[in-house]
Amino acid sequence: MRPLNGKVAIVTGSSSGIGRAIAERLAGEGATVVVHYAASGDKAREVVMAIQAKGGRAVALQADMSLAAEARRLVADTVRQFGRLDVLVNNAGKFMPKLLAEMTEAEFDRVMALHAKGPYFAMQEAAKVMNEGGRIVNISTAGTQRTFHGATAHLGSKAALEQFTKGLALELAPRGITVNAVSPGITDTGVLTEHYRQLGIQTSPFKRLGRPEDIAAIVAFLVSEEAGWLTGQNIQAGGGMVM
Predict the structure, then answer these.
(1) Exposure of 81 in the CB half-sphere (CA atoms within 13 A)
(2) 188-230 pLDDT, tens per residue?
(3) CB-side exposure of 214: number of CA atoms within 13 Å?
(4) Dihedral sign (CA 44, 50, 53, 57)
(5) What is the pTM of this model?
(6) 139-156: string of b/e by CB count within 10 Å (b at 16+)?
(7) What is the pairing mode between strands 32-37 and 178-184?
(8) Domains in the chain, start-ordered, CATH in brackets?
(9) Sheet (strand 178-184) strand order
């Protein structure tokens, strides 16, 4: 029997990259997966078809995760369709480096909304419907521990998500719901510039880039029954980039 049989999971931002790998891994372990997308509907449907081709269950649902109302709606639509929610993975995001002198107020609001506000209200809605044993995983970044030039607002938004993880882990523990974060290092999602490829190789003791499947394996453990004694943690998933 697959460990996530009967479970329903939302993976935000799962039309490509790390999110896709997580969605496919959870589906492979038996979960019914909501493949969330903001604009890449065709890619999301490709993920759904790939999951179904292997005997899994998945649907594609759209929402703008920078808007609280849309984040809530994604959870509500999932529960309306499947009658439950067991796993929420807040993965949706975009790397938006910008120097202080160049950052506009609108850009600042966008990065904070996408990485902090939306996930917060998705967690709020999820907490209303999750039963004991529910799992929430927030995808952050190793950059909050090993900062780099020109991404202060981006890293600040992810740091907020990490603090939400700790606070909500405390709030939801009496109900048996765990909340953890995973912070990938530089991961080969097919869009890295050569600069970041080399940086990722150089900063890991393994001398290679992370793979989306590396992150998916850690998330799969965190949402499993065996991880029920682990909450409020930020797992550094960068191949030793942060120690």
Answers:
(1) 17
(2) 998 899 998 999 999 999 999 999 999 999 999 999 999 999 9
(3) 17
(4) negative
(5) 0.97
(6) bbbbbbbbebeebbbbbe
(7) unpaired
(8) 8-237 (3.40.50.720)
(9) 57-62, 32-37, 8-11, 87-90, 135-139, 178-184, 234-237
